[in-house]
Specification:
The chain contains 16 helices and no strands. The longest helix has 35 residues. It has one domain: Na+/H+ antiporter like fold (Up-down Bundle), CATH 1.20.1530. The protein is mainly alpha-helical and 413 residues long.
Amino acid sequence: MRIDGDGLYLVAGLALLVGAVLPRLLRRYAVSAPIAFLGAGLLLGFVVDRGKLSPIAEPGLTEHLAELTILVALMGVGLAIDRPIGWRRWKVTWRLLFVAMPACVAAVAGLGWLLGLAPAVALLIGAVLAPTDPVLASDVQVQGPTTGEGAEPEEDDEVRFALTSEAGLNDGLAFPLVYLAIFAATKGALGDWGLEWLAWDLVGKTVIGVAIGVGAGWLLGRMAFSAPSPSFRLADSREPVLALAMTLGVYGLAEVLHGYGFLAVFVAALTLRNQERGHDFHEDLHGFLEQLEHILTWGILLLLGVAVTGGLLKPLDLTGIAIGVALIVVIRPLTAWLSLRKTPMRRSERWVTASFGVRGVGSIFYLAYAGSDFADDLPWLWATVGFTVVLSVVVHGIAATPLMRMLEHHREA
């Protein structure tokens, strides 16, 4: 039996209903909601037209759906972080971004090259799999902003804070690495474009993204909380649509001005969160985005499951399996563990933080974005990324609940 047309509305309605119930049903079990939705997508693939839902057949749809999901997630996690940004306060984040992430990319690219991949393809697979995911890692991230009188910004536990802040920033910082792979494949020798990449794609666009995020977050925060006219003071009217307007507006402005939009959105959320920190309007904004993020995430996972049933993993070979398994089991845990030495984290906290480098929607977006420049290798790239994301969803989804409970018991003891 095949479902198409109006039947898809029935499937969508049932999927959303299941999505509302699943998190409550699975709360006590070592099965996360993403695992359940991925499984539902695998089953759904037997009754829908799988050819029209493949990321290879519909790269534009895949890119934009993943892009919107990441944007909403980035704004949500930025609003959820209580800790004000600072060099010492965010020490674990800087270690994960500037030590663990480049080491992880280099290790994955090096492994791919040793296994026979062309240098540009090996670099792309390393860059695409670089960002940890702000979408699928909700079980191990901070749960929302602490507001009201007496709110203490330092109450975020170090593991949840590290994983949340890392995921918020490295989705934007993966872009220069993806461009590096694209240029290596399309522009010839490094000497012809290396300086331009360093000055513009690495530094220039990053600075623009951060500047736009700070400026827009400050301006919208002033408007929402302390505008002279009550009509513009959205915090008084409890209008949470500001969160979505800010997400899309900041991203669009950053992209128009050639900055990194993902980075701008997350920085804007942090800046807005710093305005009237104790105001409970932050909870309204975060709750609105959280619901929208859940809907988009369910859709992405269902489509991924359908694509897997439709043969997404057919081109997967031992090289792809080795890269995916090595990244999840060895490379990410080892590089993050080493990067977190001499931080305030306990040994158990370092180990859990290093282990939860969730791969997901960010990797799907970056491959859809860059895939047209690697047409000959595209089926293998999608198979490898799809396998790695599925492996991450299953392994991290099963491990999240027991490991976070273990940390809570250690803290109580």
